[in-house]
């Protein structure tokens, strides 16, 4: 008689396990994270860091409001200050009232409406100048840093010539010379861009020189990658971060530079509106009616501060040494 136990009859609670019905163990947490997680990168880490910075959130909200104000000023005021019929000389320099929150200026125009509409030209000039300087200076710095040799030497000497020119004085000369050529506010953009691109060039060049000695660039060159592929596929993504930081901070500086040129009478011209032009118009009667000068000056300061705060936050997030 065999000693092997015989299987008894299957009871009502007994279930035969098959490969299809056998329970499968849930994947471990480590495997799940590895499968669902995305590879970490500088930009991903920076974004997670920025979302936890109150300074970045505060500046982002301010900039969003200012951009909406620039593109859709009618959402903030029903008065169109570009229409001369909204101005009344008999009410010049009147104080704030229910219908005119910031009062009226020397020509009887609504200061609040002019301040809202003035954001458009000021921010447009700042953003346009930032884009031009980032593209021109970044591209030239990328080429000079990649090629080196004579190209790098000549371009570096040219930028040193531009660095020797005071920015406001040079922009003052350019705008005063060409302001009657029918270019409007774009002469301010051109003047600031001509004198500001060398800073972006130098930052991009330094970042590219640092990156081109890294192992991944040497490996790509050894594998026969073309110079354009190395330049735009390997060097540019790893050298663009400092350019973004400086461009964000410079944007606020360009807005302030536009205000300075308009204040000196060579920037934005009437009937266009900008904060610098409003400050220039109100300075003659400042002691008698200070509000037409104070309000555009406050908006200008807040705008410049918002972009500088954002630039500082982005710099701290992109620099691992500051985390």
From TrEMBL:
Stretches the record annotates as Disordered: 1-38
Q: Which Pfam families match?
A: BPD_transp_1 (PF00528), OppC_N (PF12911)
Which terms are listed as keywords in the entry? Answer: Cell membrane, Membrane, Transmembrane, Transmembrane helix, Transport
The record's listing under SUPFAM superfamilies reads: MetI-like (SSF161098)
Instruction: Report the main location listed first in the record.
Output: membrane
Q: How does it sit in the membrane?
A: Multi-pass membrane protein
Instruction: Spell out the CDD domains in the cross-references.
Output: TM_PBP2
Q: Where in the cell is it found?
A: Cell membrane
Entries under Gene3D superfamilies matching the protein: MetI-like
PANTHER family, sorted:
ABC TRANSPORTER PERMEASE PROTEIN, OLIGOPEPTIDE TRANSPORT SYSTEM PERMEASE PROTEIN APPC
What family is reported? Belongs to the binding-protein-dependent transport system permease family.
Q: Under what name is this protein listed?
A: ABC-type dipeptide/oligopeptide/nickel transport system permease subunit
Q: Which organism is it from?
A: Nonomuraea roseoviolacea subsp. carminata
């Amino acid at each position: 008689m065999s000693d092997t136990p015989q299987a008894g009859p299957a009871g009502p609670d007994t279930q035969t396990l098959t490969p299809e019905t056998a329970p499968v163990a849930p994947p471990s947490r480590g495997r799940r994270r590895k499968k669902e997680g995305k590879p970490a990168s500088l930009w991903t880490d920076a974004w997670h860091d920025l979302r936890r910075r109150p300074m970045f959130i505060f500046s982002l909200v301010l900039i969003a409001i200012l951009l909406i104000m620039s593109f859709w000023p009618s959402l903030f005021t029903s008065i169109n200050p570009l229409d001369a019929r909204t101005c009344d000389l008999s009410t010049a320099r009147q104080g704030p009232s229910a219908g005119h929150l910031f009062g009226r200026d020397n020509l009887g125009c609504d200061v609040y409406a002019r301040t809202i509409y003035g954001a458009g030209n000021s921010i447009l000039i700042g953003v346009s100048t930032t884009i031009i300087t980032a593209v021109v200076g970044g591209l030239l710095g990328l080429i000079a840093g990649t090629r080196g040799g004579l190209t790098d030497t000549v371009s570096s000497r040219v930028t040193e010539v531009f660095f020797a020119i005071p920015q406001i004085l040079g922009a003052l000369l350019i705008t005063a010379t060409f302001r009657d050529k029918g270019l409007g506010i774009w002469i301010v953009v051109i003047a600031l861009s001509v004198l500001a691109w060398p800073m972006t060039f130098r930052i991009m060049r330094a970042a590219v020189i640092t990156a081109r000695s890294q192992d991944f660039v040497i490996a790509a060159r050894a594998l026969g990658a073309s110079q354009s592929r190395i330049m735009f596929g390997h060097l540019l993504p790893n050298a663009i971060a400092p350019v973004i930081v400086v461009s964000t901070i410079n944007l606020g500086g360009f807005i302030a530079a536009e205000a300075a040129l308009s204040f000196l009478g060579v920037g934005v011209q009437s009937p266009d509106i900008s904060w610098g032009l409003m400050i220039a118009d109100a300075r003659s009667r400042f002691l008698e009616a200070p509000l037409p000068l104070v309000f555009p000056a406050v908006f200008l300061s807040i705008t410049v501060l918002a972009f500088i705060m954002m630039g500082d936050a982005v710099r701290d997030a992109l620099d691992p040494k500051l985390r």
